[in-house]
Amino acid sequence: MNPLSIEVGDALLGERLDRAVSVVADVSRSVAGRTIELGLVLVNGEVKRSKSLRLALGDLLEVDMVPSTPVFHPSIELSILYFDEALLLVDKPAGLIVHANTLSDQTPTLASAVVMIDPGIATVGDEPALRPGIYQRLDKSTSGVMGVARTQEAFVSLKEQVGSHAMRRQYRALVEGELDEDEGVIDAPLGRDQRSRTRVAVIAEGRHAVTYFRVIERFDGYSYVELTLETGRTHQIRVHMSAIGHPLVGDRAYGGDPSLLEDRVFLHSHVLGLTHPVHGAFLQVTSPLPPELTAVLVKLADRSARA
User: Fold this and answer.
1) Dmax over Cα atoms in the chain, in whole Å?
2) What EC numbers are recorded for this enzyme (predicted)?
3) Among 18, 59, 91, 139, the one annotated catalytic
4) 139 is catalytic
């Protein structure tokens, strides 16, 4: 992409640098801010990294925007579970991240893959350069059904449903140990773990978080459970189950044993239910358990039968 260059006139006189970049490059303020942080904005030939810098009359503003859409990797194959004029529901494989965190990150992502399916999604969302159409996310190690908005109107509706906890999000997981109860609720606030900024922990001053669980099947030393989210905090299921002494199989970050499943966490987004943003009907889509997780259950069932 060729650099954008403009001489500051009356329209941008006195504007903050991030606001000016947003206007000149036609991107959101947050994308503009990241572009500045990456050293891609020059004022009078000098790199400027202060987003609050005020522009003067006659300043030469140059913006070297990196490609707005991450590079698509041809090996990414997404199974489409539902598709219409407003929605794209895909079956996310484990190991694939949902979106990049910076404009310079060219790691293959689910976001880049859906833009290859529908290029129009590239303009949808609060920050389409990084998260086109993405109103929710799944952890890299989590598989299963995930929704993407195809229009801005659908994005607004779906984001509101997430915020109001109106979506039905149901997961399947294998946890260590046998739960005492067949079903129950975990109501424990979550926040960033002060000892590790990449982890989440149950903390008194954290955000409200509620998870419902139901045991589907019991094995010797393990429980196969259905989990329904009332809220959708980062790592919510993983932290909640670990907090009650039943970490997810394969979840090294929260105390899970990887011996049964080395390459991922046993967590699958099984059901997604939502109000259709166009016609208002309730839509529910299910993703079948992937083969690598089914194989673990078969192994445990066989082990239990032999005991």
Assistant:
1) 81
2) 5.4.99.-
3) 139
4) yes
